[in-house]
C-alpha cells in the first residue's frame, strides 16, 4: 500500500512508474539517501534497491556509500545521485540572431553551453533546421552517450498536441513541425520537445529559480517582444491548445498602435522594444538587438536618459502587471528581460505606478527579478526535455 | 494495491479517504452500480460493500437492487445512490437586494429554493447576519436532518485561508468573518463555506453546466459589476490568497473613469451596469437593479434601443474577453449575467468585435452562454458546501 502503486497497472507499467518517480525526485532534489527515497515513494527497501540497481545499470544514477543492508553506527548511508556525465539532455534556445545550445545533466546542472549566430534563410526554416542539426551533432559528438532528450525553446506559438510551431513571427516560421524535421535529419529516436521560450523560462524559474517555492506565479519577460509564462497550482499553465500565457497580446491600450499579431493596442506594442527605444529617441533602428544592447548597457552605467526612459515606461508596464495580478492573484511576479533592469533601477517608480493603477491592495503584487537571464530559456528547454524523457521512459 | 491506498495513512484515515472518494463519485456522477464503484476506486468488492454499508447507515447513500453477492442472469445489479432527502447541503446567495436560499441534495439536485428581500443595515453587517440566521433556521426547521454543510456566495473578495469576506463594496462589508458569526448564532457545527459569487458560479458551470467537459474555461458575468471565475487543469483557480479571477478589475481603458475599487479604467467601469444603462440614456438611476431589469426586459422583446446599446457595448466587452482568451487559452468562454443576453441577441457583433481586436486566431474564442442564470451562484455555493463537507468528513 504505497503512493506509487497505481490501480490497474501491470507489473512492468508499475515498475516504469516507480522508476519515473525516483528519477523525477533525483532530478529535482539531487542526491538522496536510499532511506529518504523509500520515505518519499513509500516503496520498500528491497524495491528501492532493485530500482536503484536498474537506474545505475542504465547510466542514469550512481550510488555512493556503504552497501551493507544494515548500516551500523557512523557508517555512511547509501546516497543515490543523478549521473550527469552519462544522463544529460540537450537544450537549445533559438532566437532571432542567435542559437544557444547546452548540455544539462539530470539534476539540472548546466554542464556547458555555447552560442552561435543564427544563420537564417529569409522566411524559409530550412537553413535554421540545417544549422540546428550541425550544432546538435557538434555538441553531442565528443560524448559516448546520446542525450536522453532534446528540448528547444522558440520565440513563437507552439501547439501542445503535436509540438508544431504554429507561428513564430520574428523568425518567419509558420506551421513548422520542427521536431519531425530534426528527428529525420538527426537520426535521434529520443523525445524532442519544443516549447515557447517564455513559458520555458517560467518553468525554469519555477523549478530552479526565483519561483521555486511558489505554487502560483506569473513570469513576464520583455525583449523585442513581450512573453510570459504562468504557473498555477504548481503547474505550468498550458490552456486548451498550449498557447496560454500570451500576455504580450493583452490589449492594454484599445485604439492604440497596430501590433504585428494583427491586433491593436497589445501590451507588446506599448512596452516592446520599439516603444522602449523610442523613449531614447531611437526610431526604426537598423538593428533592434544592437540598439537594445546599447540601451541596456546605458542602464547598467545608470545613464540618466535611459533611466528616464525606464521611468516613462513604468505606467504602461504597470497596466499589464495590474491585469495579471488581478486575474491570477500570484504569490510572486517575476520579471525577465529588460524588466529586470527596470525593476533594479526604477523599481520604486514601477511599484508606485502599479499601486496608483490598482484598486485592490488585497491582492499581493510582489515583484521580483527573475533569477535567470538569457539562460532561463535554455534551462527551461532542459526541464521540458527531462519531462519528455520521463514521460516516455520505458 | 489501489489508487485509493495512500502511503503512510493509518487504517481509519484510509477508510475516510475511501468514503470520501465514493461520496465524491456519487455526488458528481449520481447513481452508480457497486461493480462500477469498484472499478472507479480500485477497491475490492468486500471493501465497497462495507463502505456502502457505512454510507447507508449514516444516511448518505441508499442502495437498491439484489443483495446477493453473486447476481445471476437478469438479476438487477446493486445500485448505490446519494440519499438526498437526508444528505443535503444548504446553499445561500447573498446579493445587494435579495438573499436566495436553497436545499441541494448530495448529487446536485436543487430540492427547493426561495428568495427574500435583503434587509440590510447601512454598512453594518449585523442586520444581514440576523436575517441569514432566520432564513437558514426557517429553511432547515421542517426537516429531521441538519444539512451536511452550508455554502454562501457573496459579491466580494473572500480570503481562502480563513473564509473572511475582506471586501464586499456593494454590501459595505469589510473583514467580516461571516462563517464565524453564523456559526455562533446558528449553533451549527458543520462546515460553513464562504465564496465569491462569480467564482462559485464558475464552479457550478464546470461541475454541472456549460463547462462540464472543459478542463480550461473562463466564466465572466456582468450585472451591476463584472465578476469572473477561471478553471485551469480542471480546478477552480484560487491564486495565492483566494482572490484570483478579479477580471472586472483588469484595466481595459487606462486613463478611463475611476472605479469604486480605487483604480481607474477597470473593465467593470467600461461594461458594468452604469456603462450599459448610460447607453440607453439612464444616468444615475435611483434603483440600478430596477433599471437593469427594465433594460433586460427590453432585450427580451428585442427593443431596438436596447439591442443598439448592446451593439455599442460589444467593443469594450470584447477587449476584456480578448485579454482573457490570450492569457488563458480556454477551451470555452462562458458568459453570464446580461452578457448572456448580449450573446443571444447581438452575438454576431460581439464575435466580430472580438475577431477585429484579436490578432491571434490560433487561440480559440468559443463564446457560449452559461447554463445557469441567477441560480449559478446558489448551485456553486452548494458545490462548495459539498466539497467542504467531504474535506471534513470523519
Automatic annotation (TrEMBL), chains A, B:
Gene3D superfamilies: 3.30.420.40, Winged helix-like DNA-binding domain superfamily/Winged helix DNA-binding domain (1.10.10.10). InterPro entries: ATPase_NBD (IPR043129), ROK (IPR000600), WH-like_DNA-bd_sf (IPR036388), WH_DNA-bd_sf (IPR036390). Keywords: Kinase, Transferase. Signal peptide: none annotated. GO terms for molecular function: kinase activity. Belongs to the ROK (NagC/XylR) family. This is Putative NBD/HSP70 family sugar kinase/biotin operon repressor. It comes from Actinopolyspora biskrensis.
Amino acid at each position: 500500500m504505497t503512493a506509487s502503486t497505481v490501480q490497474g497497472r501491470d507489473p512492468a507499467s508499475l515498475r516504469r512508474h516507480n522508476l519515473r518517480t525516483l528519477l523525477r525526485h533525483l532530478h529535482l532534489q539531487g542526491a538522496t539517501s536510499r532511506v529518504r527515497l523509500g520515505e518519499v515513494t513509500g516503496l520498500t527497501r528491497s524495491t528501492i534497491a532493485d530500482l536503484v540497481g536498474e537506474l545505475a545499470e542504465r547510466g542514469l544514477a550512481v550510488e555512493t556509500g556503504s552497501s551493507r543492508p544494515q548500516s551500523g553506527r557512523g557508517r555512511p548511508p547509501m546516497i543515490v545521485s543523478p549521473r550527469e556525465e552519462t544522463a544529460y539532455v540537450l537544450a537549445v534556445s533559438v532566437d532571432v540572431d542567435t542559437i544557444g545550445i547546452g548540455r544539462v545533466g539530470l539534476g539540472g546542472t548546466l554542464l556547458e553551453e555555447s552560442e552561435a549566430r543564427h544563420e537564417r534563410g529569409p522566411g524559409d526554416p530550412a537553413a535554421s533546421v540545417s544549422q540546428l542539426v550541425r550544432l546538435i551533432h557538434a555538441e553531442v559528438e565528443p560524448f559516448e552517450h546520446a542525450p536522453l532528450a532534446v528540448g528547444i525553446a522558440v520565440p513563437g506559438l507552439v501547439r501542445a498536441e503535436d509540438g508544431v510551431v504554429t507561428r513564430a513571427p520574428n523568425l518567419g516560421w509558420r506551421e513548422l513541425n520542427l521536431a519531425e524535421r530534426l528527428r529525420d535529419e538527426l537520426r535521434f529516436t529520443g523525445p524532442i520537445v519544443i516549447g515557447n521560450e517564455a513559458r520555458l523560462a517560467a518553468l525554469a524559474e519555477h523549478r530552479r529559480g526565483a519561483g521555486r517555492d511558489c505554487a502560483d506565479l506569473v513570469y513576464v519577460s520583455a525583449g523585442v517582444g513581450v512573453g510570459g509564462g504562468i504557473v498555477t497550482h504548481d503547474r505550468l499553465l498550458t490552456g486548451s491548445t498550449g498557447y496560454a500565457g500570451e500576455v504580450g497580446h493583452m490589449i492594454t491600450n484599445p485604439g492604440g498602435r497596430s501590433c504585428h499579431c494583427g491586433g491593436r493596442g497589445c501590451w507588446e506594442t506599448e512596452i516592446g522594444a520599439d516603444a522602449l527605444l523610442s523613449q531614447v529617441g531611437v526610431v526604426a533602428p537598423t538593428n533592434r538587438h544592437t540598439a537594445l544592447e546599447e540601451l541596456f548597457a546605458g542602464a547598467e552605467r545608470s545613464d540618466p536618459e535611459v533611466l528616464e526612459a525606464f521611468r516613462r515606461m513604468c505606467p504602461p508596464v504597470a497596466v499589464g502587471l495590474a491585469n495579471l495580478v488581478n486575474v491570477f492573484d500570484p504569490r510572486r511576479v517575476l520579471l525577465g528581460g529588460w524588466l529586470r533592469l527596470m525593476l533594479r533601477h526604477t523599481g520604486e517608480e514601477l511599484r508606485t505606478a502599479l499601486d496608483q493603477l490598482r484598486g485592490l491592495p488585497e491582492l499581493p503584487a510582489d515583484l521580483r527579478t527573475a533569477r535567470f537571464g538569457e539562460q532561463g530559456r535554455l534551462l527551461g528547454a532542459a526541464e521540458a526535455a527531462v519531462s519528455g524523457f520521463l514521460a516516455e521512459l520505458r
